[in-house]
């Protein structure tokens, strides 16, 4: 088996109300989310380093995309300290489900929030 550099290549977060979700993710990451149409799906791209082959993802509204608390678990990058992003969650209309929690000193921290669409999303940072 080939050893992959990353386990994740791309991810898509299902949304019901695209404008509401775009506003939420733009607010918690403090950026203007670019969007485009890909076939029948409307996509909003989350911030990542494209030039250095960073791993990206998007919010997506379209057939077959159903928000859920029990769907796949993904961990968004919380930057140098996930609290910077996490502290914006409730102001943007989401809910903090699990506050910043130490995994261990080597693995860092994680937290869980519920977005405006009902998805439970985890976030990770080293500090």
Essential attributes:
single chain, 127 residues, alpha/beta, 2,3-Dihydroxybiphenyl 1,2-Dioxygenase, domain 1, four-stranded mixed beta sheet, 2 helices, globular
- CATH-level-4 superfamily name: 2,3-Dihydroxybiphenyl 1,2-Dioxygenase, domain 1
Strands across the major sheet, in which order?
A: 1-4-3-2
Low-confidence stretches: none
Can you summarize the main beta sheet?
4 strands, mixed
Number of helices: 2
Radius of gyration (CA) equals 15 Å
Series of secondary-structure elements, N-terminal to C-terminal: EHEEEEHEEE
Percentage of residues in strands: 35-45%
**What is the arithmetic mean of pLDDT?**
94
What is the overall shape? globular
How many β-strand runs? 8
CATH top level assignment:
Alpha Beta
**Intertermini distance:** 33 Å
Structural class: alpha/beta
Under CATH, the topology can be stated as 2,3-Dihydroxybiphenyl 1,2-Dioxygenase, domain 1
Task: Please give the share of residues in helix.
Answer: 10-25%
What report would you give on this structure?
By secondary structure, this protein is an alpha/beta fold. The protein has one domain (10-125): 2,3-Dihydroxybiphenyl 1,2-Dioxygenase, domain 1 (Roll), CATH 3.10.180.10. It has helices at 18-29, 83-89; strands at 10-14, 35-38, 41-45, 56-61, 75-77, 95-104, 108-114, 120-125. The strands form 2 sheets. It has a 4-stranded mixed β-sheet, covered by helices on one side. Strands 5-8-7-6 form a 4-stranded mixed β-sheet, covered by helices on one side. Helix 1 runs antiparallel to helix 2 (83-89). The radius of gyration is 15 Å and the shape is globular.
């Amino acid at each position: 088996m080939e050893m992959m550099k990353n386990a994740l290549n791309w991810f898509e977060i299902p949304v019901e109300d695209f404008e509401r979700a775009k506003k939420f993710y733009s607010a918690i990451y403090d950026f203007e989310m670019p969007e485009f149409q890909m076939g029948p799906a409307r996509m909003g791209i989350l911030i990542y380093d494209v030039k250095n082959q960073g791993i990206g993802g998007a919010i997506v509204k379209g057939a077959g995309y159903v928000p859920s608390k029990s769907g796949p678990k993904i961990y968004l990058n919380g930057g140098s300290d996930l609290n910077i992003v996490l502290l914006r969650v409730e102001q943007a209309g989401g809910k903090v489900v699990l506050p910043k929690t130490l995994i261990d000193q080597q693995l860092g921290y994680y937290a869980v929030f519920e977005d405006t669409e009902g998805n439970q999303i985890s976030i990770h940072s080293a500090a």
